[in-house]
Sequence to fold (272 residues):
Amino acid sequence: METDSQRARFQQLTLPHLDRLLALAMRWGEQEEAEDCVQETCIRAWMAFAQLRDPRAAFAWLCRILRTVAIERFRLRKRRRELLLIAPFAEGEEEQVADDAPSPLDAVLARVEQHRVREALRSIPEEFAEAVELHDVVGLKYREIAQVTSAPIGTVMSRISRGRRLLAAALIEAEKRSGMTVVGRAQGE
Amino acid sequence: MQGTTHEEAQELLGALVDGELSLPLRRAVAMHVSYCARCQRDLAEQREIARALGREKIPAASLRLRNRIRRLTETLPTGKRRE
Fold:
């Protein structure tokens, strides 16, 4: 029966990607909200399954649907929250860019807990964070990111370069601030 | 491809690290990086950030979610195939 084979094919193409879809959805919400978001994505994907012509493009196609779902559900709310946090890190990047000294990032990354790096992504502007996450965490190629985000490939390249630079600056700045407290105290003594 | 400016190279360092540049662009950016201390430092940062994020463990989807996805294909009709 056609529906049975369609169902089996759909499950075969979607279920292996659930972990990565969930990881992506958690940019916009906690586990339960993210799972709802992934479920909604799969419902829409199932309804539109006939539109998927190339099975190799299934994951990028699901990411694109998830992004639409997330934009509708979480993005505006998250964006409002983020606007309060962006300014200090943007300033931090300017300081980094103006400085030719060797980067302390290596040492910072050795000290910082692993999940903090991904958390720090939330503090940089959305379009940069999204491109970096789609590549470095979710594993999409630049061409696929361009499709998912409807951006030219040159923009994807620029967003990934700048996003990583902003993230590095954010991590270094956060480390500097936590260190300044200790140094300040020591100098005051 | 002629050489690249510092500003252009800065925008392409990530793609250089990720092997996403065409051969002429890769050569042009690599040439600039070979004599630009700032780009050498930033290239190392691009690698470190990519490596750190690549090590991040992603959460596993729960069995409940997997079952919900399986069930939805049994209860909902899929769209009609477009001819």
